[in-house]
Amino acid sequence: MDGQVQTAEMRSMKVDVVVLTRNSEETLEKCLSSVYKNVPVNRLIVVDGYSTDKTIEIVNRFSGKHRNVVILREKGTRGKARQRAIDAVKTKWFVFVDSDVTLCSGWFEQARSLIRDGVGAIWGIEVWSVLRNVTVQKLFERITMKIFGKRGGTHDLLVRHEAVKNIQIPPLLHVYEDAYIKSWILQKGYKVISTYQPYCIHYRPAIVWTLKRSISFVANELKYAIRYPQLLLSYAFYAAIVLHQSLHRNSRSIARR
């Protein structure tokens, strides 16, 4: 394709955006606002796990405003939800966005600039919203890049549709479906790019920082790390952040009583 024609096509391209939801009311409004602000949305494909909060109400507000929202309902695993979404995509490229992230300013323009022949996906780094210390954040970013290199991620992932053609995500896969998707793309001979620009801010819901949920998070992440011993220290760093944040919130809660 002629370079100028390709550039014109790239500038005018719109993409389907996939968001998985389940009781996401706490973060969904700002997530979708950032999507419509920073991505040329062809259709917003929401795969909802039968939410019982105001999730669908929020989605319907965006549907009324933009008139390009598709809602799918899925009771099963995240693997099944992502498979349904991929099957519904109609654009050459599409974007996975987690319902608890916000995209940085100019997200799509920065991601699109990295598109090349042979690139199957582009992932912008996630930065946890609770990080305040600059040194800790820089270390977190380096470790997150290292983990993505093995596991992958779908927080904010631009995907070439052709790269996931005929993918069949195991329906029982509720966690690490992101690893399966990345592995599939690589096996098809495409590259997966991870980058510091663009990025997304990850707003984990408050319930994640309870001690019970924090311990569960740590257990699940370390379970994955066992499969990749070289990541053990990386996940231990994640665990330290999670437990520190949980204990910090608990101490503030006790102090207010």
Can you describe what's shown?
It is a single chain. By secondary structure, the protein is α/β, with parallel strands linked by helices. It has 2 domains: 3-204, Spore Coat Polysaccharide Biosynthesis Protein SpsA, Chain A (Alpha-Beta Complex); 206-257. Helix content is 48%, strand content 21%. The chain is built from 9 helices and 8 strands. The chain has helices at 3-12, 25-38, 55-66, 78-88, 107-112, 134-151, 177-187, 211-227, 232-256; strands at 15-21, 41-48, 69-73, 93-97, 101-103, 119-128, 156-160, 191-202. It has an 8-stranded mixed β-sheet, with helices on both faces. Strand 2 (41-48), helix 3 and strand 3 form a beta-alpha-beta unit. Helix 6 packs across helix 9 (232-256) and helix 8 runs antiparallel to helix 9. It is globular, with a radius of gyration of 18 Å. The model is unreliable at 1-5 and 250-257 (pLDDT under 50).
The profile of the biggest β sheet is: 8 strands, mixed
- Which of globular, elongated, flat, extended, rod-shaped describes the shape? globular
Q: Total number of helical segments?
A: 9
- Alpha-beta classification: alpha/beta
**Uncertain segments:** 1-5, 250-257
CATH domain topology of the largest domain: Spore Coat Polysaccharide Biosynthesis Protein SpsA, Chain A
Number of strand elements? 8
Number of domains: 2
Strand content: 15-25%
Going by CATH, the homologous superfamily of the largest domain would be: Spore Coat Polysaccharide Biosynthesis Protein SpsA, Chain A
**Radius of gyration (Å):** 18 Å
Helix content: 40-55%
